[in-house]
Amino acid sequence: MKKVLVTSRSFGKTSPKPFEVLEAAGIEYTLMGADFDQEKFKEVIHEYDALIIGAHPFYPEDMQRCKNLKIIAKHGAGLDNIYLDDAKKLGIRVTNVPAMNANAVADLAFAHILNISRGISITNERVHKGEWKTFIGKDVFEKTLGLIGFGAIAKNVARRAKGFSMQVLVYDPFITEVPEEFKDFVTLADLDTVTEESDIISIHVPLTDSTKYLFNKERIMKMKKEAYLVNTGRGGIIHEQDLYECMKNGHLGGCAVDVTEQEPIEKDSPLLELENFVVTAHIGMYSMEAINAVSVVCAENVAKMLNGEEPRFIIV
Ligand code: NAD
């Protein structure tokens, strides 16, 4: 019997359908997501024919020992934890599930935008501590939103921004023309213009050599003093020590992130001292709808690959 190891925490969490797909294809599954341990993963992965992977790294030296492994199916879109060149050399297929979580992540990004602008979680925390105090926030309505990247998630954020009559500036060097749907409220601009002119910046790029520490001290200091910075992309795009130093000195109205350089964020991260730094635990794709859709595609891809068919969304 063919075997798949599942290291994603959320695979199949919201419906039995993904398990039914694997069972119908005669594939045995082992769930390792809930209490994932990188050392244990290293020890057992070579026994499997397929892997449905979460966010942890899969190092080339471990891949090399996997003689049976046919497919690494990423439970999500971001591929920065997988060594694609090594997988390709070893003849292991890598797939992901693009765009299916794009509404869930866009909702979260917009929730962070509204929350940081109006101090919802800050006030909530104060009220829980018995402090009934006014918080004067900022309107999101008619503000300028800067989007870094204009892929599936950023486009959905732009669609939400339209409902708030926002002007949207986009920095994405791989896009040469704004699609028709967005023409009356989205403008392409260079990175400095987006940085300097936006009231809120929301990051939606993958972590690559060109986006690593894109928001370092120099760039953050170019943002408006009262602007808000939101990152639901990847940790490592914002330089956290630089961010702390800027915010500690009163630069930025606030920052909200779903992703951090280390996950979980270190308990002693100085950012956690700042009331206007809001962090969620990498929950972007965790909506009932998104998890189910992503899990079903991963299960189908594994079933197809192990039964000699082409999976969907092949990366290498
Ligand atoms: P996508 O591939 O549709 O869009 C990414 C966009 O970034 C593309 O338009 C690309 O041209 C642009 N881009 C690439 N490099 C760039 C650069 N150096 N500067 C500016 N733009 C650049 O991806 P998506 O589905 O919109 O997802 C975006 C990112 O969100 C993913 O790569 C992933 O890291 C992250 N993500 C996070 C969560 C979460 O749970 N918080 C969930 C899913 C995805």
Short structural summary:
The protein is 33% helix and 16% strand. With 316 residues, the protein is an alpha/beta fold. Helix 1 packs parallel to helix 11 (288-306) and helix 5 crosses helix 7.
Fold and architecture overview:
The model has no long low-confidence stretch (mean pLDDT 97). The strands form 2 sheets. The chain has a 7-stranded parallel sheet, with helices on both faces. It has a 5-stranded parallel sheet with strand order 2-1-3-4-5. The protein has 2 domains: 2-99 and 287-306, NAD(P)-binding Rossmann-like Domain (Rossmann fold); 102-279, NAD(P)-binding Rossmann-like Domain (Rossmann fold, 3-Layer(aba) Sandwich). It is α/β, with parallel strands linked by helices. It is 33% helix and 16% strand. The chain is globular, with a radius of gyration of 21 Å. Helix 1 packs parallel to helix 11 (288-306). The longest helix has 19 residues, at 288-306. It contains 11 helices and 12 strands.
